[in-house]
Amino acid sequence: MGGGKIGTCSSSNGAQYSTWHFMTHASRFKKPGDYRTFELAGFSIILILGKDKQLRAFQNICRHRAYQVTKKECGSSTVLGCRYHGWSYDTTGRLIKAPEFESIAGFDKNMNGLWPIKLEVKDSMVFMNLDSSSQILDLELNESEQAFKRWDSKHVHCAVEWKVDCEFNWKLAAEDFSQLLAKENTRGLFNSLMAQRFKYQRRDFNLGHTATTRRLAFGTLLTMRLLPQSAAITTIHCSIYKNQPINDKVELEFESVKAEIQRGVQHLEQTQKRLLNGYGNFSKLQQEKYRQILKGHRDAEARLGQEIHPAAQKQHLTMGGKADDEFCRKLDNTLDGEGTACSASHRGLLDW
């Protein structure tokens, strides 16, 4: 996960934040105020197009009481208003309205904007990095960036998108796990999804280990993002982009792609069952790679004597604020059988 290259998304909280992740295509944002929300590594994220035509990313968390600013998957508004207590933000993340707070001495709106997330757009392909430090390097796409230029990825638009819920571990679908079983030459999902009639055109570029893009035909791109839900559940977010209008023939091709992906999913679900029943093993080389990533993160925490959360924003808390923060941490750890306070909020249990 070194440098600014697209890296892996680890199964551990701390190790999956310091890398670039492909999210979507810039064509999904047409006019100022257009926004879309995503979940990445347990964080709710909002991407929004500003009045200056700049695309920005923020944590989808109100700075007042940590309520989600929006729970919609997409929408359009140049003002994002939190429904909890009415705090509102503009498209640059700046706090523009804070009822009952404007008259409080020392309250500074400029210190309470939405927390930004690093974002880069390469030939309309949108990438984010959750690491809140200032030390991360720029995004490097290498060969895939040249491919985006050849494929003219700037001028395509989303023709269709869908999600597939799968009963397998996300690593089964990643390229580095193409040799899944010790005694079988099983190809990974990203290398075995498309119909044979696309074979002469196929050209894949994996965007890290959780996303891939493929040129299906001239002016037609497929992207797939792996969204780990648990150790045994993964959602695949698929999108097809085109630079031409859609007709009946194109729609039939889309259905063929969907069917091929579904067959690949079924194959990997069977692979997952065999692994759970003790038949075959993950690639030892890749397992060791992830083990070393996790070990490095754990060792760094041990040296500091505290947990490390690369995506956590640095806050300047008063003594009262620190006491409140500590109280919330304790609450987070005492909801036996009910998850954390954050998960309770996510399920809507704290919606008042």
Overall mean pLDDT:
77
Number of domains: 2
Order of helices and strands: EEEEEEEEEEHEEEEEHHHH
Number of helical segments with 4 or more residues: 5
CATH topology of the largest domain: Rieske Iron-sulfur Protein
CATH architecture of the largest domain: 3-layer Sandwich
The coarse overall form would be globular
Which stretches are low in confidence, meaning pLDDT under 50 for 5 or more residues running?
Answer: 1-15, 175-201, 335-352
For the report, how would you describe the main beta sheet? Answer: 7 strands, antiparallel
Could you explain how this protein is built, in words?
The chain has 352 residues and is an alpha+beta fold. It folds into 2 domains: 14-141, Rieske [2Fe-2S] iron-sulphur domain (Rieske Iron-sulfur Protein, 3-layer Sandwich); 155-276, Alpha-D-Glucose-1,6-Bisphosphate, Chain A, domain 4 (2-Layer Sandwich), CATH 3.30.530. The protein is 22% helix and 25% strand. The chain has helices at residues 143-150, 248-276, 284-304, 319-332, 341-346, and strands at 20-25, 34-40, 43-49, 55-59, 74-76, 79-81, 88-90, 95-97, 116-122, 125-129, 157-166, 204-206, 211-217, 220-228, 234-242.
